[in-house]
Fold:
Amino acid sequence: MATVLVIAGAAQSQAPAATRLADTSHLDDSVRAVAQTLRCPVCQSESIQESPSDLARDMRNVVRQQLAAGKSSDEVKAYFVSKYGDWILLKPRARGVGVAVYLLPMLWVVIGLVIVMLAVRRWTRAASVAAPHATDDPVSASASAEND
Amino acid sequence: MNWRRSLVAVCLAVPLLILFRFGLTRDPRAIPSPLPGRAAPDFSLAVFSIPPGEPPATPRLDTVRLRDLKGKVVVLNFWASWCLACRDEHRVLSEVATRMQGEDVRFFGVLYSDTPDNGRRWISMMGGQSYPGLLDPDSRTAIDYGLYGVPETFFIGRDGRVAYKQVGPVTEIFLVGKIRDLLMQPVALGNVP
Amino acid sequence: MMGPLGSSALLVALALTVFGLCVSVLGARQHRPQLIRAGYAATYTNFGLLLIANLAMVVALVTHDFSISYVAQVGSRSVPLFYTIISLWGALEGSILFWGLVLTGYAAAVVWANRHRPGTLVPYAAATLFGIAAFFLILLVGPANPFHTLSPIPPDGPGPNPLLQNHPLMAVHPPFLYLGYVGMSVPFAFAIGALLSGEHDDEWIRTTRRWTLAAWGFLSFAIVAGMWWSYEVLGWGGYWAWDPVENASFMPWLTATAFIHSVMVEERRGMLRVWNVSLVVATFLLTVLGTFLTRSGILSSVHAFTEGVVGYYFLAFIAVVLVLSLVLVAGRSAELRSRGRLDSALSRESVFLLNNLVLTAFMFTVLLGTIFPLVAEAVRGARVSVGAPFFNQMTLPLATLLLLLVGIGPSLPWRSATPEQAWRQLRLPTIVGIATAIVSVALGVREPMAVIAFSFAAFSLLANLQQFARATASRMRLHQEAAPVAFARVVGGNRRRYGGYTAHIGLITVAVAIAASSTFRYEREATVRRGEGVSLRGFTVVLDRLWGRDEPRRFVIGADLSVQESGRTVGHMTPRLNFYRQSEQPVATPAVRSRPAGDLYVNLMAFERDGSQATLRVLVEPLVGWIWVGGAVVALGALIAIWPGARAPLRAPRPVVPAAEPLREPLDEDADEGIPAEPAAEGAR
Structure:
């Protein structure tokens, strides 16, 4: 596939002739931010920012072109959704069935916290009336009375 | 051994199992496209490969624009020289294109993520291509059509809408059948949304 | 010759597994020691058979015996020997063969270690392990048979997936992952064994404690090794993409971590029995689910193996395990349940409850996100994808909370603490935490989550180090020992605890490294000509030359780069692109220059054929190397915790008593001299 490269001679390693410029870096950041939210259709677990594939690179260029032309991030994302479907977004939309994936974990934490608090309250009350053992300093001078 | 509790617990597990069973029946790689039913995105692409012995009725263009083709059925095939599956369908496309030359259907092969030299070499290796090959630098048109691999073939009806997107190589029966269906549709009058 | 040898070994193993299962169950039910011993013997023999089968496959791979289907699938004459050997686990059939080896190995080892234990716990556990092995052997003899003979015999093969022959870490990550995954079968089998045998004390936990910790340690190490592999191979400078297969390895780790903590509460208070059994069952199910997700084609992923009928087998297996476990656990839950009692809300027990809450919430979030595409399609026919941005957003708060708990847990004593006692422990870590927050902001950190992460990390690091320091100081005072000796004696005297604190420190290191390398990550991509360079954060990477090299299995394009800092050349890097014969897309070998402060990472994205220019992506990632160091420290912590001490005396199984009594005996077999045991007054309740 690739022809053998004919590379002869070392290059001069003086000061580099050109480096990439700071004045485009703001656009770069915006491109990166949007690109990180779009899924690469070819390597299906990476965003187009990370993916090394040609399609990802071309899509990044489309993002860059549209942002440079003044479109907003949302408009760029909407463009890709209109071409590829909701699936191109790496974060599901928080409406319709998508609400569940955001809501359920939060419910788990909240409900779990309530359960834990209630359980601790019940269990500490169930403790016998005997005075709590006087453990002054848990890491006492007698070198850890605790076994764990 | 509390059997009632066991039963309750098992009932909770059943939806999950059904979900997985459902999951096995689908192919996660087949992504439905939002394009069918909508107006086909316009393009203006340069021709890099002209079919041999063009009939004099077809004007020689070096750029193909979709809006010039309104009223005709368009078969837009995306391919690449490095794509193995494209070889399977190439013969089908070329033959059907030749066979249907007199009809109101136009075939185009858009080169995807490849160089024109590679494309030309591949075409001659495959024994020629009976329809024009187009260049899509920077894959703008490919992205406009929501492409995520090759080969993909878009069927555009007389009304300028994308009727169908085929992912993967086309078969002759399918190709001919789809074109005939689209040829029978009247041209829509008025605006296409 | 290898083909028939392997096939017959597997067939005999399957027959022996069925035999062993029947004999173990019968022997347990009817209390017939000869049957039980026969079952144990079958366990050992099974391991021998799987060893033969695996060795046969390795020999076939190395000798390029393409008459065997698996060799024809992943073998190639042009692949170096090292990668040929490790292609044993490179594709579906071979990986299941290897899984079988690890499973029968664990079964044989754990049965051997417990062969003299009276009671029916071990026979039932052995039976469970036979049941699991039966599934994998059915796969190996049926749809996933690696020893299928081919005719005509192909002359050569395509070699393993290019991603798998590009980096030596492929020799590390899968074996350790399997040791971790499969290792979770052991506590599961013993939990089921305990439920079946009616021995509802906590014996099974004590028996399997080291095995669980070992499996956990392997899994931790494997996950970090996998992250390192991603970092070095996939070329985008990241190490975790929340890909379904990555999630599949992470979820059992989360529940296993919850388990190894809450189990301590059960040992001390006799509580949370149903919860712990559920955690162990969940961990095992998640390991099988992980394998199911990888091998069934049900989710698209970087790792996905072939699809096909194997998915249905896995689904059937999951269904059976899920149903049987639920029936047992739910059915016996009333007998297991003990009346819970806590002395105080301000205690280590409470922190462990919170820790379990956060860890299971974390697991649930990852699980939901992973299978959500399925749910959305089933419910609405919609195709959605759930990727890194979602997971990062939803799990970051939980991970941060965990980072805080990791410091609070060791600081609070068991049973109860007064607020003064608690503050005495937490005072210094809190000060350090706040100071770190101030310093971070002063140094220019603007992301609130990063500031919080760093201050929590400092808090927890100090809290854990403090435990080492205070215990060492006490011991020095008490025994007049020098610091290093005192330190060694302290750690050696309670390996479980200090191994745990070591693992905590490793985890904190990983967390800080992840926070730093993602918050302060800089990236620049540019196309440069020869002699030109790309500048980023004080480094300039200059393209010296592009070269190409033809190798038997691939064609390699490399870019020789000079690294300059303030005008001086400080090093050289050579990122490469490897074009394997059978693949269209090249596999990258990025060049990584690792220093303690961070990595300079360069990936070759594209090049001109005439060698005149190349597109480079340059990244600067601070502290990322500490992730791998932290992972090693976590594994070290697990090793310390497992390190054997005095043998615990075997005891007869206890009758079924839904006890509210805490355990009376000292909990730790490796209590050393100089450390007094738990005061006997503890039992007088």
About this structure: Confidence is low (pLDDT under 50) at residues 1-23, 129-148 of chain A. Chain A is about 45% helix and 0% strand. The longest helix of chain A spans residues 98-126. Helices of chain A lie at 25-35, 54-68, 73-84, 98-126.
